[in-house]
Every structure is written in C-alpha cells, then in structure tokens.
Specification:
The complex is a heterodimer of chains A (about 325) and B (about 250). Helix content of chain A is about 75%, strand content about 0%. Chain A has about 325 residues and is mostly helical. Chain A has a two-stranded antiparallel ribbon with strand order 1-2. Chain A is globular. Chain B is about 80% helix and about 0% strand. The longest helix of chain B is centred in the middle third of the chain and has 26 residues. Classes of the chains: A mainly alpha (about 325), B mainly alpha (about 250). Chain A: InterPro entries: GerC3_HepT, Isoprenoid_synthase_dom_sf, Polyprenyl_synt, Polyprenyl_synt_CS.
C-alpha cells in the first residue's frame, strides 16, 4: 500500500493546508513568488502536515484553523531548510526538477529560504501558546546544529554510531516529532499523550532517515532523482557505511576510493563500492536498526486510545519500514 | 547605576556569548557586530517603557537577526564542492550559521513568551528579503533609488523595532544616520577602486563611476546637514547617541 493512500481520507484537510500554503508564500517580488511557488509545486509527501493533522485528530479539541496554522509553518520550515540545503550541497536537482539555487543562483536561494522561514514564524506566532513556540524554537536551533555537525563529520571515518544517530535525530527526527507534538498540543491532548506522540514521531523520523540512507545505496538513480551513493560521494557517512566498515574488504575498498578526499569519485568507483557494501550484512543490519525504531514508535502509539487516526499512524509506520523510494 | 557605555559593553558580551559555537568559530570569521546599530537600538529600546529584562532580550535578539542576515550575505555565489577546501566549508557554514542565529532569536523570545516581538522581527525579515530581491535584480530607475533601497534594507529591522516601541523620533534619525554612513563608506571604496556596492549597478547600466561618485558626494553633503539638524533636535536624554553622531561627523569632515 502506498503511503498517500493510508491518509487519503484526510484529503479535504490536506487541500485546505495546500491552499493556505500557496497563499502564504505569495511574495510581492515576482521571482521570490515564483521560486517559492515552484518549490511548493514540486510536491513532496507533506508528511509533516500529515503528522500534525493525525496527531490533532486524536484530541477532543480539533480545530482545523489552528491545526492548519501549525501544519503550514512546519512545512514552510522544512521547505526553507531544503532551499538552503541545496545551496550547501550545490545541488542542481530536487525531486527531478532544477533547484532554486540552480535556476536563480545562490543569492536568490538564500533570500528565498530566509523569506520562507520568516513567513513560517509570522504565521505560527498568530497562535499564542508558549509550549508551541518553546518546542518549535528549540527544534529549529537543534536542526541547525545538526546540519553544522553534518558538515563537521564529513569524510570523518572515525565517527561512531552515536554520532550518526544524534545527527539524524537533529536532521530529520526532531521536526517529525515536533509535528506530532504540536498537532497534539493544538488539539488539547494531555501531557502524557503529547509525549507518546512526540516519541512516536521521533522514532518514525529516525527510521525514516535510516531507510533513506539505505535507499541511497539500494535504489536506482531514476527512483532517487540523484546518483546512487550520492550521500557517500558528498562525504556523509551513514549507517550502512558505518556498519559496512566492520567488513575488512569493504573497509579497504572504501579507504582506497577516498584516500584523498579531494579525489574525484567516479560512477564506476561508486558501483564497485555499492556492490561490495551489498556483500556485507550492513544493509540487513541497518534495516534491523530501523525496525527497532519502528517498534518503539508503535509501542508509544499503543499507549493512546484507539481511533482511526491512531490506525493510520500505525499504517504509516509499517509503510515507512517497507518503502522503496 | 550603570552608564550607557558599560551597558553597551555588557550587551556586546552577551551577544557574543550567544553567537559562540565551537565549530563555527573554527571556520568562519567572528560575525561583525555593527556598533552603531547596537547604539541606536539600545537608545530606542531603552527609551521605551518595558522591563529591563525585556529590553535586554529585544536588543540581543534584534542584533542576532541583523547578524543572521549579514552572515547570509557572505555566502559565495558559487562553490566548488570537488575542491572540498576550507573555502567551500566556510561558504557552507555561512548558510548554517545564519540559520542558527535565526533559530536563536526565536528561542530567546519564546523563552519570555513575547510572540508579538517574534512577529515584528519575522515581518521585518520578510520585507528585507523582498527589498534585497529588488536591489539584486537592479529594479531601480536611478542610482538614487538604488542607494535609498540599500539604506532601507540596512535600517528596516531597527525601524520596525522603533515603530513597535513607538519611538518615531529615532526612526527618522536611524535612516539619516545610516544613509550617511553608507555614502561615506561607498565613496571611500570608489576612491580606492575597491569592490563597491555599486559594482553590479555600474556593470549592468554602464554607468559612469565618476558621475556616481559626484552624485554620492552631493547627496552626502545634503545628508550631513540633515543629520546634524536631526541630531541636534533629538531630546537630550539621548545624549550619548547625540555625542557619538556629532563626534563621527567631526572626525569625518573637520
């Protein structure tokens, strides 16, 4: 089953959010407007708004206006991060389409990211709930620190599993956990329930990123919209590589390929590395780590009262564990 | 009782503490803290009837936003990732440092639950980026419009804070003072043949450098007179600011 199908019944709410998102990024400057709209139209799974909606629907005080405000801001923050990430990575394509950086240059990409982030904060401050802002602002700072850590750890072959897990927590899991938490706060769930949902989101986020990191090696360039092994080419050492390095043959080949971090890694080099990685147990072990997080996510979900949203959150967890793109 | 100077010194220490991040410090230059902006911001905020804790937060967070925006201006137009040099890492970290400082301002204001000030700063950032686009694409009819637009970009954050705190008198002075500062700085650069604010403008409009210099000098003469008058007219409670501006003018022109 496809991810989007599990929450297809949320279409009406998601359409409301989509419409509001398009409205909120209507900048006065035509290029700024075009760049933001283009980014929005490129799609994406809108997974953060989905988590806000589903968590909100677990509460007794679900108000679409408030939920919409939270969902929009979280998606805008995610979008702003993507625009700036593409500047950092010098990325030309995102979801198979030219990035803002590629189309308009670094300067415009920086202005667009800053503009979108400002819109996100302008929008969410219409809600005067201290818990929302404390949570979201802490997350924003942590996400930035995570990105800084990622640069710091590039081509650092000595990093350990803990470093990797902390990095993906900041990079991906926190914003998903925060989406669940803010949806729950907005809909008036209890402290305990808010925490269960936060833990659910955190664990789902960890699993989601681990699977992403696995797919970087096991999926095709067509499906990924970027070359296979791209993370490694960029110097990002992810779970499969960390686990694969325990295998001597792979480890040797890896070090040979990257002896000089400035050397150009060819497509042939990467194909060889991926083949060698697949011959180790790293991919299987990575899936096991992902499953461990998924199980924790479901454990937290089980502590919540039964309803349709809870079932959907459970289905999402299962689909994430099996996704191939 | 603290003097203005020592309070400003203290604020500088606090801002630098907030900006401190070990890895960033290793790779990127220490963010520039515009002391003139800090002084006028201090004067504006200090003149408003809010608690001293709030005053401190307002000044620190506004300066963090200014530094975040300035840091993003340092992001290079191009990277060569294949080089993986310290220049590349530095460029990448300018992106992240700016984002980090932005997150900090939101965090510091969330801690005191000041949602309307978060909104004030966020709206200013939004407007500034709209204006930056206009100047980037040189959507101006004249060098005069270009300069005024640049001055607006430079001062908008402080103007919005002054507006939120109902300090209209100082809003006007901010614009006049920073316009003079920009002109002084740019004339120096044009004289030295250094990279100037007008570089893109000159390149794409084929404008004559000497005529731009003449125009800037004329505008500066007018500005100086306006600034002197405005400075003398502001209330005596802003004596430190008054003295500072007059001393700057004296240093530059006498």
């Amino acid at each position: 089953m496809k991810l989007a199908k599990t929450y297809s019944y949320l279409k009406r709410d998601l359409d409301i959010i989509e419409e509001a998102l398009a409205e909120v990024i209507q900048a006065d400057h035509p290029v700024l407007r075009e760049a933001s709209t283009q980014l929005l139209k490129a799609g994406g799974k809108r997974i953060r708004p989905v988590f806000v909606l589903l968590s909100g629907k677990l509460g007794n005080d679900f108000q679409i206006e408030k939920i919409k405000t939270v969902a929009i801001s979280l998606e805008l923050i995610h979008m702003a991060t993507l625009v700036h990430d593409d500047v950092i990575d010098d990325a030309e394509l995102r979801r198979g389409k030219p990035t803002i950086k590629k189309q308009y240059g670094n300067r415009v990409a920086m202005y667009t990211g800053d503009y979108i982030l400002a819109r996100a904060l302008e929008n969410i401050t219409t809600l005067r709930n201290a818990n929302i802002h404390r949570t979201l602002s802490k997350t924003l700072v942590e996400v930035s620190l995570g990105e800084i850590e990622q640069i710091k750890d590039k081509f650092n072959w000595d990093q350990n599993l803990r470093t990797y897990l902390r990095r993906i927590k900041r990079k991906t899991a926190l914003l998903i956990a925060t989406s669940c938490k803010l949806g729950a706060i907005t809909a008036g769930l209890s402290e305990k329930e808010i925490n269960y949902l936060y833990q659910y989101g955190y664990n789902i986020g960890m699993s989601y990123q681990i699977i992403d990191d696995i797919l970087d090696f096991t999926s095709s360039s067509e499906k990924l919209g970027k070359p296979a092994g791209n993370d490694l080419i960029q110097g990002n050492i992810t779970l499969p590589v960390l686990l694969g390095m325990k295998d001597q043959t792979f480890s040797q080949l890896l070090h040979q390929t990257f002896t000089d971090a400035n050397s150009h890694v060819t497509e042939k080099d990467m194909t060889q590395l991926i083949t060698a990685l697949k011959q180790t147990d790293a991919i299987d072990l990575s899936y096991k780590v992902s499953d461990m997080y998924l199980n924790k996510a479901i454990d937290n979900l089980n502590k919540l009262p039964d309803n349709k949203s809870k079932q959907t959150l459970e289905s999402i967890a299962k689909i994430i564990g099996k996704r191939t793109s | 009782m603290h003097t203005t100077r020592s309070e400003i010194q203290q604020l500088k220490i606090l801002i630098n503490e907030k900006l401190h991040q070990t890895y960033l410090k290793k790779y990127i230059q220490k963010p520039m803290l515009d002391e003139d902006k800090l002084l006028i911001l201090y004067t504006i905020v200090n003149n408003s009837p809010i608690s001293s804790d709030k005053k401190e937060r307002y000044i620190i967070t506004t300066m963090l936003v200014q530094i975040a925006l300035d840091t993003h201006e340092l992001v290079p137009d191009k990277y060569d990732l294949n080089e993986n040099s310290s220049n590349t890492v530095q460029g990448q970290l300018y992106v992240l440092a700016g984002d980090y400082y932005s997150g900090l301002y939101y965090l510091l204001l969330s801690e005191i639950e000041d949602f309307s000030f978060i909104q004030t700063l966020a709206s200013a950032i939004k407007e500034i980026n709209e204006l930056k686009m206009k100047n980037y694409y040189l959507e101006v009819e004249s060098v005069e419009e270009f300069i005024y637009n640049k001055n607006y970009i430079d001062t908008l954050l402080i103007i919005r804070v002054a507006d939120a705190l109902n300090q209209k008198e100082l809003m006007h002075l901010t614009k006049e003072w920073f316009l003079s500062n920009t002109l002084i700085h740019e004339i120096e650069r044009l004289d030295d043949g250094a990279a100037s604010l007008f570089e893109n403008y000159i390149r794409s409009t084929n404008a004559d450098i000497s005529s731009i210099k003449d125009y800037c000098n004329q505008l500066l003469s007018r500005q100086i007179e306006k600034l002197k008058t405005n400075t003398l007219e502001i209330s005596n409670q802003h004596n430190v600011l008054k003295k500072h501006i007059m001393a700057t003018l004296k240093r530059e022109f006498e």
